[in-house]
Each structure stands twice: as C-alpha cells, then as structure tokens.
Amino acid sequence: MNSGEDRKPTGVRPSLFLERQGYRRRRLMDAARLLPILGAALVAIPLLWPSQGAPEGGVPLSSAILYIFTCWALLIVISLIFGFAARRMAGSDNSEAETDRWPH
Fold first, then answer.
1. Taking a C-beta distance cutoff of 8 angstroms, is the pair 14, 96 a contact?
2. Which pLDDT value is given to residue 57?
C-alpha cells in the first residue's frame, strides 16, 4: 500500500478565487454572448405594437423602421465597445495561462 506521505505536490495550486482582471474579462465575454439575445428581443418589440388598421391608431411603419435601424446601430456600437474592451484587457493581461502552470 502506498501512503500519502511519499506523494509530493507538483505545480502551483490554483487560487480558489479569480483575479480581478480574469473575472472582468469573463463577465465581458458573458455580456457579449447575451448581446444577440438582447438584439433579438429589441428587434421583436415592434411585433407587439398595434398595426395602423387597429382602432387605437397604431404605429406608423416609418416609426417601426426607424426603431429597428436605431436598435441595429446601437447593437453595432455596443459590439465595438465590447471588442475594444476585450482587446484592452487581453493586452494588459500578463498572467500565465492556467494550463501552463500544471504539468501535462
């Protein structure tokens, strides 16, 4: 039988908590993954508006098109912001990857 005394730990033990930079980068990635769902929800909102033939009056088609175009442009701007933020975080990340610390 092999006792636990002759086993020696190898490598560096990973931290239980993530460093701030890694945590922020992962939250940014999570937000970027949710962006298409937000976009689909925003673009689907005009489907809930009453049509022009409804007795309440409805929303003109030009307003709906303007809303969809504004949502589209806003999603592009948010995607650009996420891209620049991810590039800035990757450039300032000087920690070694977790796979580099553990022996294969």
1. no
2. 77
